[in-house]
Write a structure and sequence with these properties.
About 5% of the residues lie in helices and about 45% in strands. It is mainly beta and about 350 residues long. Strands 10, 11, 12, 13, 14, 17, 20, 22, 23, 24 and 30 form an 11-stranded antiparallel beta sheet that branches. β2 and β3 form a beta hairpin. Its EC number is 5.1.3.3. It comes from Nakamurella panacisegetis. It catalyses: alpha-D-glucose = beta-D-glucose.
Amino acid sequence: MSVDAELSTPSLSVGVIGYGARISYIRAPDRHGNWADVAKGFDDPAAWRADPTFQGATIGRYANRINRGTFELDGRRFHVPLNDGANALHGGPGGFSDRDWEVEPPVVTPHESSVTMRRTSPDGEMGFPGNLDVSVVFSVTGSELTIDYRAITDAPTPVNLTNHVYLNLAGRPSSIADHEVTLFADRVAEIGPGLISTGGLIDVAGTPLDFRTPAPIGERWRASHPQMVLAGGYDHAYLLDSSGGEYDGLRLGARVIEPSTGRCLELFTDQPTVQFYSGNMLTGTVVERSGSTLRQSDAFCLEPQQLSDSVNQPHFPSTVLRPGAEYRNRTIYRFSAE
């Protein structure tokens, strides 16, 4: 398969491509030392460019949804083209996932492999104000994949970056229903029609959204709870607390274990939420590299980010980056087997 950089250690191998600053594959061993690709994706470059599902992509300028694709900033109203019904999703139809990034030569040391990707999002791109200079650094150290995001701007603009890699820790086409998930959060952001944030927060206790203790993804994903019905499964921002502890200054946001292989993923982040998505909108229209169509229950996403539609929710933390400041965001994916 063709990648722009392969980042490898004896414990982990990650391929990345410049189109969309995307993760192409993640190869990790199971409890018996058998390696497999746990990330969904394609081998054909044309398939990446035709992909409507954001496979492995860097998402920006604004991850998740903006209500009706419009927001007001410093007294001016801005409009992002709609690509999700009446809303703008993941930066609009020409967001960062659909752009070619500059790929710098990989840097390899005895302990780490890394590659930096850059692009300038010009003033007015997808309706957003300001020229935004962005870099994404993918690094592999031991069994960890780290993604570091940086951005500066010459005019105030909202910024909310994440990665949309689809995962199945079994490393083969199979259901994710048995994956055991822990999410270190006692609240989620409430969604309404169109999956737009209402601005409210919901306690997960006593609901099918509660993953404070490990539970299989498929155990409650067809529950009749109104939030589950609206999303068709899980597609919710979990507000992280400190119950998972910290590592390298980042909070543990999620842990996922695949029982048959023993593969385990721990996600650490400095972002306030993790969007947990159970692939509800995978409808069989995309054929991955295994030759299988991707459907709901085939993969999940964990997307660290700011709260959805913060640009229209004054009581949510601001996502506005201003000149002279630097946007920073770090995620660590730690793989192991047990």
